[in-house]
Amino acid sequence: xxxxxxxxxxxxxxxxxxxxxxxxxxxxxxxxxxxxxxxxxxxxxxxxxxxxxxxxxxxxxxxxxxxxxxxxxxxxxxxxxxxxxxxxxxxxxxxxxxxxxxxxxxxxxxxxxxxxxxxxxxxxxxxxxxxxxxxxxxxxxxxxxxxxxxxxxxxxxxxxxxxxxxxxxxxxxxxxxxxxxxxxxxxxxxxxxxxxxxxxxxxxxxxxxxxxxxxxxxxxxxxxxxxxxxxxxxxxxxxxxxxxxxx
Length: 247
Ligand SMILES: Nc1ncnc2c1ncn2[C@@H]1O[C@H](COP(=O)(O)OP(=O)(O)OC[C@H]2O[C@@H]([n+]3cccc(C(=O)O)c3)[C@H](O)[C@@H]2O)[C@@H](O)[C@H]1O
Ligand SMILES: Nc1ncnc2c1ncn2[C@@H]1O[C@H](COP(=O)(O)OP(=O)(O)OP(=O)(O)O)[C@@H](O)[C@H]1O
Ligand SMILES: [Mg+2]
Known about the structure:
Layout: H1 3-21, E1 25-29, H2 34-46, E2 51-55, H3 62-75, E3 79-81, H4 85-94, H5 105-129, E4 133-136, H6 141-146, H7 167-176, H8 181-185, H9 198-202, H10 206-215, H11 220-232
The structure holds nicotinic acid adenine dinucleotide, adenosine-5'-triphosphate (ATP) and magnesium ion.
């Protein structure tokens, strides 16, 4: 990949989408991870002085917030911090009546974890709406292909500038953009629970996934696993089904 060429294309793409929409700027959720760092750096180039970083810790590690602040400084964008931890706790209590008599523990853990990205989605839209900004998503091709994101959570966005780049290409772009090496080297994680990592949860490494997406090469078992993730997440990449009504 020619990182300079890709960078220019994506900045121009963001500029064009921003202009077409009539919106006044771009908002990005900053987690301290590489995807949001790259998305923020591109947004800042496309809308200098009109890009906002939004930090939304929700029982998150303090190091994540420090990294996110570092990214905002490095990229040169203003940021706001919204601590969602108390909101999450109150909501968890308020949601008690929605629980079935015997909730499956695995389902309960995932449902509760997915509340975090969904709270971030509404917070980010609020920060964007009050400024007339669009919400820039950070999903990359590897995540989109496997459905490794929360529907209407971090998947609920206006633009996906990184959507055609596999994770390794996002890393190449991060190096081209001269983002801090510590951010580039971080283990990819959704940060939804202690010790979570993308590769651990998916059971696939990004190297394997990216190789399959770029070259179509994978061992049969791996291929089956990736295609199964792709199949069951199809609904996330489409609008909700609408019945055709016969009148
Ligand atoms: N066939 C179908 N047609 C229409 N809708 C369908 C459906 N199958 C499921 N659904 C719906 O989709 C729901 C499942 O999707 P969803 O709610 O997203 O939940 P799910 O995919 O189960 O969980 C989200 C996954 O993304 C990961 N994640 C989340 C957030 C950020 C990141 C990150 O990398 O930063 C990663 C997270 O760790 C977890 O593995 C079902 O509960 C159901 O409501
Ligand atoms: N604590 C947070 N504050 C603000 N935004 C967040 C936070 N956690 C997650 N997000 C948003 O959700 C997006 C999805 O998270 P994801 O983990 O896939 O990306 P990342 O953290 O940028 O990179 P990596 O995948 O390498 O961890 C982030 O890019 C960011 O926009
Ligand atoms: Mg992350």
